Amino acid sequence: MALRKAGVLVLGWLLVGVGVVALPLPGPGLLILLAGLVVLSQEYPWAERRVEPVKKKAFDVAKASVSSYPKLLLSALGACSIIAFGVFLCIDPRIPRLATIPALGPIGPLEVGPEVPLGGWGTGLSIIFSGFIALGVLVYSVIRFRGEAVAERQASRTA
């Protein structure tokens, strides 16, 4: 019983922490926060009271993000950019820069600059994983909310 409670607390607070950190970043921060609150609601009444408002807000944000094709396109491009950056870190964690000749300035092929702090396989794979999670959440949002979002947008135009 104590081991289960400890596991619930560690997992719940870890998800809440990651969710709070991910809120301003591209990706599913609000959904991760919601998952943490759902886990913590097994032990804390205050967390149970906050699940429904956060769930409503998370679903409203997800619905708004798939309400138009430009928003869908930007979200998909953002997730693909995250994946591309992760691949870049896996392939070569150094910053590319143009080769330079002092008298002529930047020219020719790229030469490799200093290494990106915390770059490499571990960082790259975790960023790639984050990008795929973002794409998965986007696909889920399209399947779950796209019809509702379009109907609401059309209703607001006619009103």
Describe this structure in words.
By secondary structure, the protein is mainly alpha-helical. The protein is 72% helix and 12% strand. The protein is built from five helices and two strands.
Please outline the helices and strands.
Elements: H1 2-22, H2 29-40, H3 45-65, H4 69-91, E1 94-101, E2 105-115, H5 121-158
Antiparallel strand pairs: 1-2
Helix pairs in contact: 1-2, 2-3, 3-5, 4-5
Task: Provide keyphrases for this structure.
two-stranded antiparallel sheet; 5 helices; 12% strand; 159 residues; 2 strands; single chain; mainly alpha
Radius of gyration computed on alpha carbons:
21 Å
Structural class by SSE content: mainly alpha
Instruction: Provide mean pLDDT, rounded.
Output: 81
* Gross morphology: flat
Distance between the termini: 56 Å
Helix count equals 5
Task: Please write the string of helix (H) and strand (E) elements.
Answer: HHHHEEH
Strand fraction equals 5-15%
Number of domains: 2
Share of helix, binned? over 70%
Strand order of the largest sheet: 1-2
Q: What about the largest sheet?
A: 2 strands, antiparallel
Stretches where pLDDT is under 50 for at least 5 consecutive residues are: none
Could you give the count of β-strands?
2
